[in-house]
Amino acid sequence: MKNNHSKKSIKTVEIPIQGMTCVDCSFDIEAAIKKVPGVQTVEVLVNSEKAHVQFDPTKASIEDIHSAIENAGYCTPLSLQPTVQPKNPSDTQIPLGNFTNRILILFGIVFGVVLLVVVMGEVLGIFDRYTEQIPWFVWLILVIISGYSIFRGVIQATLRKQITSHTLMTVGLIAAAVVGEWTTALLIVFFMRVAEYVEKFTTERARQALKNLTRLAPLTARIEKNGEEQEVMIGAVQKDDIVIVRPGERIPVDGVVIDGQATVNQAAITGESMPAEVGVGAKVYAATIAQFGTLRIRTTLIGEDTTFGKVIKLVEEAETHRADVQRVADKFSAYYLPVVVVVATLTFVFSHNPLATAAVLVVACSCSFAMATPIAVLASVGAAAKRGLLVKGGKYLEELSRIDVLLIDKTGTLTLGRPTILDVVSLGKMTESEIVKLAASAERYSEHPLAEAVRTLAHNRNITLSQPSEFVAIPGKGIRTKISDKSIAVGSKRLFTDSMLNDKKIHEIISKLEIQGKTCLIVSQDDTIVGILAASDTTRTEVPKAIDDLRALGIKKIELLTGDNERVAASLANTLKVDYQAGLLPEDKIRIVKEYQKKGHTVAMIGDGVNDAPALAQANVGIAMGAAGTDVAIEAAHIALMRDDWALIPEVIHISRRTMSVVKFNIGFTVVYNFIGLALASTGILPPVFAAAAQTLPDLIILGNSSRLLKRSVFTKNIPINKVKFTNRNEKGAECDPNTCACGSVSIDQVHS
User: Fold this and answer.
1) Per-residue pLDDT reduced to its tens digit, 226-260
2) Which residues are catalytic?
3) Which of 339, 395, 342, 334 is nearest to 31 (CA)?
4) Which CATH topology does 2-71 take?
5) Domain 390-415+539-650 classified CATH 3.40.50.1000?
6) Under a CB-based contact definition with an 8 Å cutoff, are residues 584 and 476 in contact?
7) 294 and 245 in contact (C-beta within 8 Å)?
8) Under 8 Å CB-to-CB from 148, ≥6 apart: which residues?
């Protein structure tokens, strides 16, 4: 009982953190928080600038955690609630601590530039007689002032019994000062500050994609209360509130349109540049833009519960799913600093040269190792999210980059998932209309696409449905129910016994329909088959081209998995020139995934994320199609395509391979670069000053290489979001003002009279 009570008392908080520049910072913060009594788990997200902490509130408080973070040398805002950007720049107030820090930074930059000029003059022999006359304590004061923030961090790390790259560089700096090389010591401080700024710039550049994404979320909403409109903070909006959205405004909530019609740019969710026309009854999503027209929306979801909120949350947490190659880099980084200490010790023992020893310590920088993977992954994940590709982390990008087997669901994935009933066959005394009524009534509460097709046929024929009872859905087979005390079954052949199907006429009808590539739904009443419905689905038009692109990427094994019969599956598979397995139940798909994995293959599974959720979860990479607004799809899959577009599948695979290529280059470059630096420093070829300058280069190379991932994939066919131009045109092609044009017809580049 005590354990249960303890579990119930555990609290989870999300704490914003400022000042993190690389993965080493996250290790420092994680270690500091874990020392707080009562803390259970800590997850520090460098790129999202926050920490998720689980703790026992009876043993620790949020204030204790804040103090631990601040004692580690980082800042935590006092308020965890988002604030509205002030409309007037004069309303912005700079905290005193930040102001002081900026003054110190400015002083460091100015002083460094002056110092660089002085040293260059000294190299030329211009200032020798002046620098020699400066007392040592003046040099010491200058070193302390210019490197104050760095030295403070080193002291704090030392008190926590931690050694960082700045610790080693500080030791090298002290060594230079001890032997009287004060100008060298000052230049080391200068380049340490330069390296610090470069790391901050590199990390901020990588974070930009995520920040651009989060800025799309509206902070306020206009709601209708008692017939009047009022603007409120988004946190004040409640479920079922009526939200008013005017032309050009972002929709602040997920909801259903109850009045109005508009052209909505859904790029923030789906990545699709072409807008969609929405009207009464349509679902709309937060962060999308009502380009033309006013909407009244009944709120269903707000804040982080919206589809956009889930996208932001998953993109922020993507770095928690670390790729294997990143774990290798992290381990290498952990062992690297002890190796540097050993090399420095051996250098001093054999050369008795303190400056060479100092150079070894100064050239060591583990941040570049730690940054090699996450910078690239964040750039890819953030950029992909803007295109409607939701990737849950580097782990899945790495897995996707090496897949060699691609398994595909049929209904709703390869096809539109909107089948149409083309044939109704009566096998007894019932008329076609009676069979349609019986089947549609039985399928009244089914969510399967075929059930929707049957109901649509009944609606088109103006057939009134009966009320079913004891409804039971049997996955992969069909449904059983009762109507007017009669047992009704509708489904595939697997739903019925051999004795019920043992009729030559039934076999002939089903065979004929299946040869035509149609799916048969058998209808029975009181264990007697009374009719057959034949449905056909339409293959997505972009699928053949996407399959060709996948083959061009080197994926040779592409296989269709479907619950349909052999003939229907064969017809589609032959058209697409892929392998297939038919007549499968959901558990069969899981079994097939496992069989390929046991043979050593890396498997990707593509499905609609609802019926295929178990198989998607079992695959090395599960890809869900059309996941916008679908919680099950977003949760089950490792990668979610926010719109139904097969062109995104080869694109996301191409992105994964580009990402891993960039990551491998980043890691390889930093390893080679740092070991060359150690070799040159230990032999005395690389003096401390140039060793300090050299450590800034890897970060810039990593940034430049990773920035390539922000460019669009060669497989994409959509216009970049920021280049979409929304205009209204008349019949002559000239732009017109939608607010004054008398035509009343408005859309993107739409021609009207």
Assistant:
1) 778 888 888 888 888 888 988 888 888 888 998 88
2) 409
3) 334
4) Alpha-Beta Plaits (3.30.70)
5) yes
6) yes
7) yes
8) 104
